[in-house]
Amino acid sequence: MVVINEITPKAMLPGCPVKPLGGGEFSSFNIYSKEKIRELLLSHDTDISSKIRCLFFGRFHGDEESAEMLSKSLDYSESVLFRHEVLYVLGQMGLKSPLTRLYEILADETEHPMVRHEAGEAIAAIGDDESLEIVEKYLNDNSPAVRETCYLAAHSLRLKREKRLKESNKQDIDTNISNINAFNTRDPTPPKSSCEVSHIESLASDLLNEDLQLEKRYAALFALRNILTGIIDSNQRKSLSDQYDQQIDNDKVHFIAGEIAKAMEIDKSSAVFRHECAFVLGQIQVISTADTLSRVLSNQSEESMVRHEAAFALGSVGSNDPRCSENLEKMDKLCTKKELDRVRKLSIETLLKYSNDLDIIVAESCIVGLQTIMDETGSLDILLE
């Protein structure tokens, strides 16, 4: 389970599926210099996990030089997964300088739809007003992933434009329009304004409603995630005397996580939506979702972008360390050493199995998922004993 308010390498590199090398505290010793990042990114010999780690180091530096370096790295790799992650990080950095390259990639029909999708999402994350008419060109694109992403991007860009207009006119604004969250990542759309525990069931209903507009299902997804992280944060602040109330709250955590996992597995309407559900499951790291993530990753009829995100999420969920079960169980009675061992073993075995998948996007994602687990514990062999 994700631990809120703890300064960890993952917290300092939001959205990163792999941790800095060196382990332990976040320090200058395990954050690469820009020179080292450039050396590894602009090499054909660097493995996929190390390259992705470098991308998030680039986000940590966060300046124009780093953005230019990340953009240039696109010329050194044909990996769909890597190109997708480059664009994700560029969007999260929020700088306008990569927009021209992002527009080009979005327009390029020879690019994999998963890469074009991420270009559209990154354009929305950057939030420049002039981007609205760009993404609107692709609302009828041949690729469902591209047109749905651009539909959501247009929705997000309109909301941001309205917010800026209201701010300039000193009008009251909906503070929930912000797409930044507890994970310090930029969401594709803002959460629904009703982010109260009492709204969990209605939000879950919206999440599972395939007839509802896509942006409303996204809004429900992010609202549920924010409620869940609020509950976890509250539980961490409670004393041992509050264990009864804490377990009631944990039941809500597992209900929310279960509904998100269900939406990911049973939805038939949108691969983009299913992949976003998987991304959120990777953020929250609730162990009760591991079996569903394993099934989705194992489903070879599922879209690459969904299986990819399930692999990343399974690596995150599987990285809950059984050796920390005593502390985790204080917050969640499901986090027994036996259950953590089972989830870790399931995660490793599933990721290992599909690390040789015929779909290279899935195979590389599984390698990164395994690296996530290794980064947390130092070894896969120890965990399988």
Automatic annotation (TrEMBL):
Q: Which residues form a coiled coil?
A: none
What does the record give as cofactor? Answer: Fe(2+)
Q: In which pathway does it act?
A: Protein modification; eIF5A hypusination
Q: Which reaction does it catalyse?
A: [eIF5A protein]-deoxyhypusine + AH2 + O2 = [eIF5A protein]-hypusine + A + H2O
State the free-text cofactor note.
Binds 2 Fe(2+) ions per subunit.
Binding locations of Fe cation 2 = H275, E276, H308, E309
EC code: 1.14.99.29
The residues that the entry says bind Fe cation 1 are H84, E85, H117, E118
Task: Print the keywords alphabetically.
Answer: Hypusine biosynthesis, Iron, Metal-binding, Monooxygenase, Oxidoreductase, Repeat
In alphabetical order, the GO MF annotations are: deoxyhypusine monooxygenase activity; metal ion binding
Name the Gene3D superfamilies for this protein. Leucine-rich Repeat Variant
Give a single Pfam family match: HEAT_2
Q: Could you tell me which SUPFAM superfamilies the record lists for this protein?
A: ARM repeat (SSF48371)
PANTHER family registered for this protein in UniProt: DEOXYHYPUSINE HYDROXYLASE, PBS LYASE HEAT-LIKE PROTEIN
The UniProt family comment states:
Belongs to the deoxyhypusine hydroxylase family.
User: Per its database record, what is this protein's job?
Assistant: Catalyzes the hydroxylation of the N(6)-(4-aminobutyl)-L-lysine intermediate to form hypusine, an essential post-translational modification only found in mature eIF-5A factor.
Q: What is this protein called?
A: Deoxyhypusine hydroxylase
Q: Which organism is it from?
A: Cryptosporidium parvum (strain Iowa II)
